[in-house]
Amino acid sequence: MTTNLHNHSHLQNPFSVIPTSVRMNVDPELSGKGITIAFLDSGFHPHPDLTTPVDRIIAYHDVTQPDARLEDSPKEWDWHGTMTSVAAAGNGSLSDGVYRGLAHEAGVVLVKVSDRGKITEENIARGLDWVIKNKDICNIRVVSISLGGDEDVPYKDNIVDQKAEEAIRAGLIVVVAAGNSGCMDRHHTVPPANSPSVITVGGYDDNNQLGNANLHLYCSSYGPTADGLIKPEIIAPAMWVAAPILPYTDAYKKAQALTELIETYKNEPQAIRAEIESLLRDNKIISAHYQHVDGTSFAAPIVASVVSLILQANPELTPATVKNILISTAERIENAPVLRQGYGMLNARAAVEQAKREKHVYENNHFLSPRMEAKKLIFFYHHDAAEKVELAADFTNWTASNKFEKDPSGMWRAEVKSPGPGRYRYKFILNGNQWVDDPSNGLKEPDNHGGFNSVVEIS
User: What is this structure's pTM?
Assistant: First the structure.
């Protein structure tokens, strides 16, 4: 390789973007240290942001060539996985730390699931299976997936969804990009984004500005799924995300050359600088080694990196508890359709702070509300700040009834006599005045008041 990664300026150019660390406003003392994130993608390059000064690539696995090694000569299908992994866990070594990911000290496991760029559901499932089998050896806690299968089908009928659910039962937190078909007629999520227990991530556009004054929804895929589950659960930045340009490629050489030109001609006539700036802008180049990218493929790794910070702050948390923390701290965008944003924008700082305060450890079966037992509906709810929890439903004429009781673990529980076969809507009432849907139940309908009713079907 003749291209040198270090003999030029690493300065940002006039089209720089807000670094993810600044945009997400998380505790700077947390870095994902001690946590390993597995990335499933089309391919990878051992980028300096993952290998310098310390190589944090714990393992590499190619499902189509199990004996293959991670090579330093990238192929065209390696760019996507390189971008997703570095956006989440890169340390910004080629930007003097400016464009580092939130999980910049986390370990990474790279799992290639494509055959020369072609991705099949069978290979995604094989990748998940490998992660499950090697999670203890590699200390994997989080899985980030920015790809998907073919069609929105019932999750019990799909091998990718079944492997995703198996991964979560094994203790892994699985974060999946919703997809980018939200502005098309066929806008539903596909496996594994339609799986009930994964954290499905849509996107928003903050127009490269801090604050919430100029927010718009990205064209993320959204539910309800074939099973009636509302997806995505949360949304994260899906535009203006800093990511690496794949080294040694034509795009890389162009970025390096244009960055040097804009510096060389900074004092030259405006017409010359305008031409160079136009090329930088059109190619989304923000410095010699980075560009800004868009898509839920990059929103999901940001969420995965926040999950690594949550686990660093509180390693005992289970997948269901982490998901509950993320959705309970999310903030909805006003006047935006709830079906497209779920519980709203990721609030990274609030999620990490809540994780620090969480004193209970819950199993996944605590978050499967409601369920039938001996002709009774059993509801569970977790909210440490609640002093009273009540149930209101269409079968109670939306009046508060059936007070919950808090067990020693901190989980609120209520039993209700089954109203009989049918489809019913319900909410929980906190402290007598706050109406919320059941975060553990993915079956929802808009309540026509900017939120959701939870839905239970009894056969």
Answer: 0.90
